[in-house]
User: Fold Site-specific integrase from Peribacillus simplex.
Amino acid sequence: MEALKLQLMHMLISLKKSRKIPWVILRIILKTFNSKRIISISQTLAQVLQHHLRHQNQHKLALNDLYHHDLNLVLCRDDGSFMPKSTLFNAFSRILKRAELPSLPIHSLRHTHAVLQLEAGADMKYVQKRLGHGSVAITSDVYAHISKKLEKKNMDKFEEYTKGIID
Assistant:
């Protein structure tokens, strides 16, 4: 937790721990060597996490020895123990329902993040590193064709470039 606090000051999150527990989704499961990485986060997310950690520290103080300090989890039950994956899935489902969106797997948030990064103009190599893909080709194959907005942006760039040649 101390390491996370320090990293939040620099707006970074280190993804390096792996623990396979079948009923837990809130522990990061690393699939490959490239999965071990440090990613930057926004100022807003850093503030949200800092607020969450302050709230979590209140539970630690209140429960003292009953709190599961040994697990050192960021997303957990109030006593510091593992949160069942159904808790996150159910919360995500409620959010989708309130927004009148179809049911989606929680992994769709990763895809949404990647597409929004690309639509915002992020470099494909940056997105590849952020997602932990082994090569930029994997990222490109999965995400480059998904977004109409991205397709239009690329066509507009091409048109702007060729105007100087054709004119």
